[in-house]
Amino acid sequence: MFWLTWRQFRTQAAVMFAAVAAFAATLAATGPQLADLYRTAGSSLVDQVSSPDQTLYYTGLLIVLAVPAVIGMFWGAPLISRELETGTHYLAWNQGVTRTRWLATKLGLGAAASMTAAGLTSLAVSWWSSPIDRAVNGGGATDTYFPRLDPVAFAARGVVPVAHAAFAFVLGVALGLVIRRTLPAMATTFALYAAVQISAPLWIRPHLAAPDRTTVPIEPGGAPISIQEGARQIVAHPEVPGAWETSQQTLNAAGQPASVPASFADCLHTEAGPPTLQQFEGCLADLGALGYQQQVTYQPAGNFWALQWAETGIYLGLALALTGFCAWWIRRRVT
Amino acid sequence: MIEFHLNSRSGLPPYQQLVQQVRHALRLGLLKEGDRLPTVKDVAKQMAVNPNTVLKAYRELEHDGLVAARPGVGTFVTRTLADATLAAHGPLRKDLQRWLTKARLAGLDDESIEALFMSTFRDAAGEDVA
Amino acid sequence: MSAVLRARGLGKRYKQRWALQSCDLDVPAGRVVGLVGPNGAGKSTLLNLASGMLTPTAGTIEVCGGRPAAGVEQLAKVGFVAQDTPVYSALSVADHLDLGKRLNPNWDDAVARDRIRRLGLDPKQRAGKLSGGQRAQLALTLGIAKRPELLILDEPVAALDPLARREFMQDLMEAVAEHELSVVLSSHLVSDVERTCDYVIVLVDSHVQVAGDIDDLVACHHRLTGPRRDPDTLPAGQHVLTASHTDRQTTLLVRTDTAVHDPTWTVGPLGLEDIVLAYMTRPADAVRDTRPALEVLRCSG
Q1: What does pTM read for this prediction?
Q2: Is C105 an 8 Å CB contact of chain A?
Q3: Does the pLDDT at position C296 exceed 60?
């Protein structure tokens, strides 16, 4: 059974691993220079990265984010739906191998290849980007590069891409099994995987490790402050290097959660155009004088690996649950 | 060696067609005592016919004492039908010719003669069975 | 002889529609069984239930003494060539043999290689490039070399031209003679069934109409022609399948296990095709009443 699975899978696997190898080689060629630069420049590295390396940084992020999605769509979704579509499952299921073993072999080999591909890609990119990540965690400017905990970078570093790939692959297989047609299964896999990837940092990841809280005064010259929703909300950015801010809350003079008073919006009101800087600082000072403060909840940089392992566990658990679903479905519900 | 064929429009079941073809060949002297019939597998393959059908035909021929199966060797003709029946053909044919002349004189055309013959033949066969 | 296929109250429902209903069958081993019936009658459903591709909604089915596809041992006993004879288009002919060899405990490699050689197939040819006839032959090779006790074929020759069809049937009959296989095949060509099968199952509108030895069926079905008469006045042992009348004449197709002695009838023989067509054209209420089908099993000519 392994032979047949490998025989059917080897071309796709070869294409994927060749692409991964080519990309890893590119990273290997430029990585050492970046590491040298960090040794000499430290956190100010962020201002000295060459433009090609900057492109490579973003390319790396994109590739690690894309690999699980591509695996789910191009390896997972067609794995069984193509057999159902062409009727070859009739051939396969009437050899001397039970469907459960057939499925187990296909899932096992596919998941192992998926996790390896995603793992190697993530390893290469994490290694290459580590000087930049360290520079950012050490206090380097974050206007060009993401802290490792930022949702964009988090899914492209460490071990979570391995779990993402396993999940995306089994998700594709399960949808292919249920939908039974390759193209719709691929589209649905992409849509569902993207939805899960967007939901995770919004609603799940912030709760996977104990966050830190800090309360900053509202005053000109303090932590940078921006306003949202027509000055009804305030967002403060305390200088905690490498942190991921997960929620904001304005507190009144009594230290109770409160909404931003209407006087603040009135103060910022202009006949036309945005308020001037002096006006903005004046209004902030007034608000601060009323006793208002801003509470910021964030995941500190030190929680990176705790969050990585927790999220890895969740995605692997989902992949296992979907595997169980596939095994049930193929025995009870197919044809 | 005899080569079989099947006629899907004959109305006879396939195994009876095989039996008939062997009898016919025996009558015409195409098959003689000691001749070997093709193996069941060869007939099945050549005619795309069920081997059980061929077996059934051979068993019927065996039951009639026309052939004998020697296990592992084949099925062989043990008797011929040629002499006995050919000798009887002459007088019978003459009787039939006389009857046909009578039928024509009675005003029967070819079709009526054929219908009369077939229905009488079938009735007689039916009585034999019953 | 033991039954190679036994069904009791077998039924399969897809959402609201029953594809097969209250099916009772006892097919003896060592036979070549023809499953005939109009399109959509449930032939494929029955064969898919027998191969374990489907699970029954009602009743039970047993094949070679076990539940279909219940395990490796059971899978080895039954070969199945599905409709349109699917093969892996990206794999070569040799790959398919390799697949069969690796996945089947009783695989007969000599038979497989010999067949491919005699068919004149290039082992390196990709299966996707084979003609319909060659593909069917490849699928049949996999089915035969697996050395099953029962080989199930779903419309194996439906898509083939007459020459390819004949070659396929020749090879199938040769395998039956050689390996003592039981075979169940569905077809809508009664002439093929008459030639290659010795047992027939007629399936109409999801109900088994009649099942039995072909020679027995031929022996106990007759065409009666005679002066016009009400079919209800026939003796109890004679079941009318179809009746047609002109102003003077009545023609009946009847099933009876005793000889017809009434001298007013002219009794004519029926070929398998006539019998099958008679069951297919019966009125709908007779089709759904499955009792007569079982009585026929006892009819011994």
Answers
A1: 0.86
A2: yes
A3: no
